[in-house]
Amino acid sequence: MSLTSILSAEAIENAVKECQAPDSFSFKKFSQLCGLTSKSPKEVKDVFQILDEDNSGFIEESELKFFLQRFVPGARTLTDAECKGFLSAADDDNDGKIGVEEFLIMVQS
């Protein structure tokens, strides 16, 4: 399964272009632009599984750095500040990683 089987390639491209500048990434804006917010919980969970590169059941800070590259190869990496902000916004149980339910809540809020 690929991200473009769930989200349109054009929407992904537009979302990545919107956050090309360092420290301009906003997960809320990105997920709206790429169409993630309009997807079903199952589709959001499918996206999570694709982003969980090591299949640990969590998206760790090391995986967040390459978040945009999972959508578009060659996209920039997230800055440390963006990774920490993303993690703190989504990590409801403060375990230092984002679980599938936390990801789903963040997409839907």
UniProtKB/TrEMBL annotation:
Q: Name one GO cellular component term.
A: cytoplasm
Write out the entry's keywords from A to Z.
Answer: Calcium, Metal-binding, Muscle protein, Repeat
What GO MF terms are annotated? calcium ion binding
Q: Which SMART domains does this chain map to?
A: EFh
For this protein, the record's InterPro entries field holds: EF-hand-dom_pair, EF_Hand_1_Ca_BS, EF_hand_dom, Parvalbumin
**At which positions is Ca(2+) 2 bound?**
91, 93, 95, 97, 102
Determine if Metal-binding is one of this entry's keywords. yes
Q: Name one Pfam family in it.
A: EF-hand_7
* Top-rank taxon: Eukaryota
Using the record's annotation, list all stretches that form the EF-hand domain.
39-74, 78-109
Residues bound to Ca(2+) 1 are: 52, 54, 56, 58, 63
What family, per the record?
Belongs to the parvalbumin family.
Function noted in UniProt = In muscle, parvalbumin is thought to be involved in relaxation after contraction. It binds two calcium ions.
What is the name of this protein? Answer: Parvalbumin
